[in-house]
């Protein structure tokens, strides 16, 4: 088992389309990170050797063009193995993070290392410490937090 926080499973990422979590970076700042399905045999710098089930890759949840979030709370918009920026529509390869079109052409998403073992996805990047599932705001413990309350 990799030494790192267990995030989710490959199956859940595939079922839900993506997985969003918040981690602290080496500057002690919160970053949102997305985990997306990646079907290449070996993910590029996303770092995940994959088996027959396919794999996943993880990226900072921010477009390289104008700091637009990909996942704004409703999952990552994707089509044909590419992440779609909701602002201007540039598409990034889910495995390599590369963009060759639109406003963000010629850029690559900053990657985050994850590993898969027994179908589970682990955060194994020394630059990031897992904080919680969901976006940065989902970690607030304020009175409006009702995530575990049923009505
Ligand atoms: S903000 Fe993503 S392409 Fe412009």
TrEMBL record:
UniProt-listed InterPro entries: Rieske_2Fe-2S, Rieske_2Fe-2S_sf
Domain Rieske, residue spans: 50-123
Keyword Cell membrane: no
Region (Disordered): 132-151
GO function terms (MF aspect): 2 iron, 2 sulfur cluster binding; metal ion binding
Pfam family, one: Rieske
Keyword Iron: yes
Coiled-coil blocks: none
Alphabetical keyword list: 2Fe-2S, Iron, Iron-sulfur, Metal-binding
UniProt-recorded name of the protein: Rieske (2Fe-2S) domain-containing protein
Organism, as annotated: Halosimplex carlsbadense 2-9-1
